[in-house]
Amino acid sequence: MSNALLEVRNLSVDFHTARGTVHAVRDVSWSINRGETLAVLGESGSGKSVSASAVMNILDIPPAQIIAGEIYFEGQNLLAMSNEQRRAINGKRIAMIFQDPLSHLNPVYPVGWQIAEMMTAHGRPMSEARARTLDLLNRVGIPEPHNAVGKYPHQFSGGQRQRLMIAMALALKPDILIADEPTTALDVTIQADVLALLKQLQAETGMGLVLITHDLGVVAEIADRVVVMSQGQIVEQGSVRDVYHAPQHAYTQKLIGSAPGKGQIKTLEPDLPLLLEAKALCKTYGRFTALKDVSLTLARGQSLAVVGESGSGKSTLARAILRLETADSGAAFWKGQDLLAMSPSALLGVRRQIQMVFQDPTQSLNPRMSVYQLISEGWDIHRLMPDRNQRQMRVRELLEQVGLSAEHASRYPHQFSGGQRQRIAIARALALEPELIICDEAVSALDVSIQAQVIALLDDLRERLGISFLFIAHDLGVVRDFADTVIVMKAGEIVERGPTEQIFSAPSHPYTQRLLAAALDPDPDVQAQRRLLATAQA
Amino acid sequence: MTKLISQRAIASLLSLLGLLVLVFFLSRLTGDPAALFLPIDASEEMKAQFRALNGLDLPLLEQFGRYVWDFLHLDFGQSLRKARPAIEVVLEAYAWTLPLALITMTLVVIASIVLGALAAFNVGGFFDRLVSIVSLVAASAPDFWIAIVAIVIFAINLSWLPTSGVGTPWHWILPIAVLFIRPFGLIVQVVRGSMLGALSAPYVKTARAKGVRNLPIIFVHTLRNAMLPVITVIGDQAAAMLNGAVIVETIFGFPGIGKLMIDSILQRDFNVVLAAIMVTAIAIFLMNILIDIAYGLLDPRIRH
Amino acid sequence: MIFKQILVAGLLASGAIAPAMAQSNTDITVVLSEELDLVDPCMATRSNIGRVILQNISETLTELDVRGDKGLMPRLAESWEDKGDGTWQFKLRPGVTFSDGTTFDANDVKHSFDRVFSDQMTCESARYFADTELSFTVVDDTTLDVKAEPAQPILPLLMSLVTIVPSETPMEFVRDPIGTGPYAMSEWTAGQQIVLDRRDDYWGDAPAVTKATYLFRSEPAVRAGMVAAGEADIAPQITAEVADNKATDFSYLNSETVYLRIDGQDAPTSDLRVRQALNAAIEREAFIGTVLPEGTELAVAMVPPTTLGWNPDLSPPAFDPELAKTLLAEAQADGIDTSLPIEIVARTENFPNVTEVAEALVQMLNEVGFNATLRMVEVAEHEQYYSKPYPESEGTRLVLAQHDNSRGDPAFSMFFKYNSEGTQSGVNDPKVDDLIARASAATGDERAALWSELFAYVHDEIVADVLLFHMVGLSRVSERLDFTPTIATNQQLQLSEIGFK
Amino acid sequence: MSDLSTAIPPAPAKRRAAPLLAMLWRDKLAFVSAIVLIVIVLFALLGPALLSDLATSQNLRGRNSPPFDLARGWAFVLGGDSLGRPMLARLIVAARSTMLVAAGTVLAAMAVGAVLGLLAGYLGKHVSQAIMRLADVIMSFPSLLIAVIVLYVLGPSIPNMILVLAITRIPIYLRTTRAEVLEVRQRMFVQAAVVMGASNGRIILRHILPVVAPTLVTIATLDFAFVMLAESSLSFLGIGIQPPDITWGLMVAQGRPYLTTAWWLAFWPGLLIVITTLSLNLLSNWMRVALDPSQRWRLEARSTKDE
Questions:
Q1: Inter-chain contact B36–C380, Cβ cutoff 8 Å?
Q2: Contacts of C50 in chain B (CB under 8 A)
Q3: Which residues of C touch B115 (CB under 8 A)?
Q4: In this complex, is the C-beta atom of D213 within 8 Å of any C-beta atom belonging to chain A?
Q5: Residues A288, A307: Cα–Cα separation, whole Å
Q6: Cβ of C289: how many Cβ atoms within 10 Å?
Q7: D278 contacts in B (CB within 8 Å)?
Q8: pLDDT tens-digit series, residues C411-433
Q9: Where in chain B is the domain with CATH 1.10.3720.10?
Q10: What sign for the dihedral angle of Cα D206, D207, D213, D214?
Q11: Domains in chain D: how many in total?
């Protein structure tokens, strides 16, 4: 028996799913002591969260089933304990925070009550819990704690919600905090703040921190040790620096290799003909300004990135150009014709030339249509290619073009993985041979390795077919790899624009500088240096 | 909130007017009230006199104009059969229907929420199956059949309860019990379904990770979130009950709006029918507002 | 869980309720099938109203004896005589007061009739005087001359149908009926109950019942159950199916007659043989003791046997399907299209088991070769088919109807049902019209003889309709009461006739 | 590793019917329900042709014969009715009208309600408002009055009964469809179709309707039960189906006076109504799970354990 405070030993968990039994994790072992930070790194479906859920007794059984293994906490096997004993440990000794604080906080109770409940559930009197709640809110940096306790989760911003989760988790000063993708849904600048807060709190309380993440940058920023998981198994573990600089396993090597932001920066070829020109687009929702006087130009073959954090108006821009939303004022000229003033019949012709790839392919593909139907729907709409054989040939071609195979045509979206679904969405966009593809966060939901493949595919299409791209993203690394021109948006306005090279090497606007500074580098050494620099500046 | 209510009020007023027109003209297609008020061998003169006294001899449009005019002065006309203001008759009946509906719905809501929530927590278990089967049978049994069997068993054979009527609280037990069954069966299923969804919500995981006990997880954390669809169904069922429980009222001699409605329809007492529909519509409108307020109370996201 | 609580509560309470429900002393509870829309005395001839107020709250000048055979008896009038020329003189009972304390006199009678004929309200009783003009002369407080134009030989009998109200009564329906009867209404909670209390200052003998509470339940099983459970003492109009206790359940001819009204102007029923075939095709006896209660009698006339002029020589047509087939074949041979559709129109809830009766009738007709179908309708629609003008149809319709005459004289039935002008008549026969006119104008034995002749002519000669049954009513009466329901229980329920054992 | 390798292994090509049957077999209650419903449908299809004469042969003197007595033949095993007709034969024959009324009502109401709901959900605010007010009017129109009006003006018959009941049920489908459409039209794949230039008709028919349909089918199965009970209640009140037509609801209503003396008159048809609605409910519960990919494991997971 080791001396670790918490030790997962040879854990195997199965999930009984629609397609038979899935071995969610196999023979997983890790341990952690007070004061340590352990990162569990893995892509979606790697089983990185399962062992933590088993620790917290929050696996749904069924469909989950623990096949083998033990979990020791202070030398006691948690899996052999009664539910009541484990309940007493949860929250008090081991606490957990989650990826999406909006859905993990109860929407119908005030946050103060929810934080206090952590204490009352473990026998503390209500008065004490209330007082401590105010302290905690203060400590995690929620403004006006007295007001905040009575508010509901939806009244806070994403970063504040994660702070609230943290306050709740730390209420009883647990020995271990498990953080499951705590910053994934947050904008980069806020991610940096939250990670900093976690680190400070760890230093204060001396707790052990288990960080479950898919993001190499987060690992580099915060962890001491890392466990790399793939397909339910641990493929590699060790200190963060060792693993980053000398990955042993092929999977780890590939993962580190596909981290974005390392490729050749593209430059815009001069004198390309103008394709799209947006002029002074404005859009407000009530009192909220989504677009304020936004203008841009896009040339044939150009790939223009629009970068910004959530709420910056970057998606509204795309939707306004496509007339999915009606702009309040302004114009968008497509080859000299104003899209926003076009008659429905004229618009139909243009729709063929501009296609869109959405963020989440799970939602943008009709689940009740086969891949063949999805791809050929555009031809139905625009009355193209009536010949069935020709259609089948073209669908096959398109599938092969995006890296799928012909026999996928008869399947349905739910039978594919996320990356494959995005490929189908791209094939659908290509079917109408468009001149412009608007990608709205088209790769944000994908794992890094798949993200790299999709970016490569889009790049290839641009080069071979001369398609232009309007690329909307929040991830600077991806933008750096793909775009030749960048527009930075904040609160509905364009704050800076220029060639990619210039934006990344010499940002002029302070906001752009902040964005770039907050982005995490996968290299732990780079991150360590930045931290030093930041402390020095402060 | 006031804006929402005034918007709803305008919408309801529109449909109320549509309803008024439809009911007024359609009901007059269904025969002559004079023939039903008077005995079968009454003379034509008597019938004519009855029609004249009640304004039924006027051209239809003029009748309608007069009705609308009176209606705008909050006069719903006289009952053709009872020689009393129609509104008085209706409100009297409503005074019985309202408490019946209120008590029954309260019991239904409490019972179905408790049982449905526990069944959902115990999904697949014995208690869950029991509740499911009982609720399904409850939702599919003809109520008049149950009512008469209940009277035969509990009132006549066992003499535990009075057969019918409204004299004492004991008289209310059987009607309430019979009226209880179907909405209970329906709502239990909705509660169970909604709770099943809510129990797999992420915040339940958070609560479990906090070490919260099962009962607070079910009844504090999950139930309130699961209540929105339940409230909608409760609203539908309550609306049905505000329309009166025709069958139960008929069998148990309960002088509510349902019995009044069917009697007035069969006897072509147009003014009472119209007044009853108007009062019911207003009651349902008020109830919908209550439902909206309940939504807001349950879910702060709607409130803000 | 809730159920269990209710059950437990019920169990605990059962001991407590039982004594509370039991009726001690001389108060009784009557459970009726229909609620009362009105309680105005001038509507007392409507049976559901009459059962509560007739002779209990409001009295009439004369009263027909339905228990014995005393015929027409004095009530508020002590005596009457025919002064000739259509004028009758009534001597009124002195020393009678209304329940509001005012004294009863001839002016009250005159006012009561004024109300009946008023054009400001529609009183039911007016229908009995359809073509008769009445004029009243108050001779003194207790003497009243009534002149009828044309002369009305049964005017004293008609007086048993008009209730007397004080002369202060307004010309609109009242909700607090004032009468001279032994009881006064002390409570009317619409939809719930009506309570009558015995008057101390009643002119006649004080009845045994001190207080009567009327409740209303439409379900016969519930009504019967209430008596069984001690919640009520009298439940009129229960069905044979629930009348399972010989000690409490009484059956009696209830003055209702069920028949199939034939439209004699329609093909194929315009042919006598077809009408005879209809009569021969029906096995009337099979209904009795099965879908209709024991005691139901086969009808040979529109009115019950207690009526003036009832003809004992008539016998119901025998069930003879062969005869029916022969008759039909003969009619067919004479060019009558006997395959024309015959629709039997019956009214739901008209009388207990009406659907079964109608279905059986249809089957019986079809078995001898008629092309009969059934159409069950609700009350308002039934009225459309029952009363003139009759809607057109491809063949003809037979309307299954129930007619009530407990008034003792066929005049209340025969004109409407058989006169060529009668609202529900399917007959157009001058001899019938003539007989009705003569009988209505005649008195005494001559009147009886003429009615008898009419019954025979209608039944045997022209076979005007398919007379089926004199119906039996069933009432459940608590064993603590000394009361036997009679033919008049349909129309009135005199509390003074009720005693205690 | 390529994302292709993580692709979920595709199910065999000939899926659809066979796995559905297998899933049905897993849920024994739903399986029995399906059998029961098939038998009832067979009754409805074949019963009237085979048993109509037997079901209408009256015998007044042999009325209300008790059940479980084979002396008068198999048809009397469930007893005889108040006119001496065999209950079993009548129940089987009545299945047709019962099913006709219920299915006709549900289908008619669903068709009209769904079309109006799709229009209200997808077209502009004014159309939507107009349709919703119409629904409100229908909702507050007492169904008893509709019944009396239709039956008085048009006469009592099975098609008219369907009309009456269908009118009262339309708002349920209308409101559900509209609510679903409002939600579905916000989904990405609808937006994707708009971007491709799809017309309103195409979006409604190809993209929205298929997503809304399962909900409608679920409601329809539940409504089936409701309609049978409503029809029965109208018969009880004397404004429903009338003899010589015959439905289970009518049989229950007609058996009412005999509840204390001949319980089988109302009991068997009542039991059939309960069994049918119960079967429909169970089957619809099963369907809700079987058609929902995120719930389906409940039916399939057990299979891995069983095998």
A1: yes
A2: none
A3: 1
A4: no
A5: 19
A6: 14
A7: 136-137, 140
A8: 888 888 998 888 888 888 899 99
A9: 87-303
A10: positive
A11: 1
Please indicate if any CB of chain D lies within 8 Å of the CB of C244. yes
Q: Do chains B and A touch (3 or more CB pairs under 8 A)?
A: yes
Which chain D residues are within 8 Å of A356, Cβ to Cβ?
192, 195
Closest CA to A110 of A157, A150, A159, A59: A150
Tokens of D65: 């014969």
Interface of A with B (CB under 8 A): 56-58, 60, 87-92, 95-96, 98, 100, 103-110, 117-118, 121-122, 152, 154-155, 165, 168
Tokens of A344: 């429905």
Query: Both tokens of residue A159?
Result: 């970063």
| CA neighbor of C284 nearest in space, from C273, C275, C272, C297 | C297
* In-domain check, residue D3: no
CATH at D171: 1.10.3720.10
In angstroms, the Cα distances linking B119 to A219, A221, C491 are 43, 47, 57
Neighboring chains of B (3 or more beta-carbon pairs < 8 A): A, C, D
Place of tokens 């109302």: D266
* C-alpha torsion sign, points A186, A192, A196, A202: positive
* Reported pTM: 0.80
R_g over Cα of chain B: 24
Chains B and D touch (3+ CB pairs under 8 A): yes
Whole-number Å distance between alpha carbons of B56 and B235: 38
User: Do D and A share at least 3 CB pairs under 8 Å?
Assistant: yes
The verdict on B124 touching A (C-beta cutoff 8 Å) is: no
Name the B residues in 109-168 with CB < 8 Å from any D CB.
Answer: 132, 136-137, 139-145, 148-149, 152
How much is the ipTM here? 0.77
CB pairs under 8 A between B and C: 151
Scanning B21-50 for CB atoms below 8 A from C yields 30-32, 35-43, 46, 49-50
> Does D235 contact B at CB distance below 8 Å?
no
- pLDDT computed for residue D300 by the predictor: 57
Min Cα distance A74 → chain D (Å) is: 35
What is the residue-level pLDDT of chain D in tens, covering all 307 positions? 333 333 344 444 444 556 677 777 777 788 888 899 999 899 888 887 777 777 777 777 777 777 777 777 777 777 788 787 888 888 888 888 888 999 999 999 999 999 998 888 887 778 888 888 888 888 778 888 888 888 888 877 888 889 989 998 888 888 888 888 888 888 888 888 888 888 888 888 888 888 888 788 878 887 888 888 888 888 878 778 888 888 888 888 888 778 777 878 888 888 888 888 888 878 887 877 776 655 565 665 444 333 3
Distance from CA of D124 to the nearest CA of B (A): 17
CB D265 within 8 A of CB D82: yes
Q: Distance between CA atoms of B221 and A107, rounded to whole angstroms?
A: 9
Domains and CATH numbers, chain A: 274-506 (3.40.50.300)
Element (H, E) at C189: strand C183-189
Residue C8 pLDDT: 41
Q: Partners for A (CB, 8 Å, 3+ pairs)?
A: B, D
Confidence at C213, pLDDT banded by 50, 70, 90: very high
Instruction: Determine C/D contact with 3+ CB pairs under 8 A as the test.
Output: yes
Confirm whether D16 is domain-assigned. no
Which residues constitute the domain of residue D72?
28-294
Please give the C-alpha separations between residue B191 and each of B109, B242, B291, D179, in angstroms, as whole numbers: 10, 22, 16, 20
* Chain B environment of A121 (Cβ under 8 Å): 210-213, 216
Instruction: Give, in words, the CATH class of B87-303.
Output: mainly alpha
Residue-range domains of chain C with CATH:
27-38+181-248 (3.40.190.10), 58-176 (3.90.76.10), 254-473 (3.10.105.10)
**CA-based torsion, A246, A250, A252, A257: positive or negative:** positive
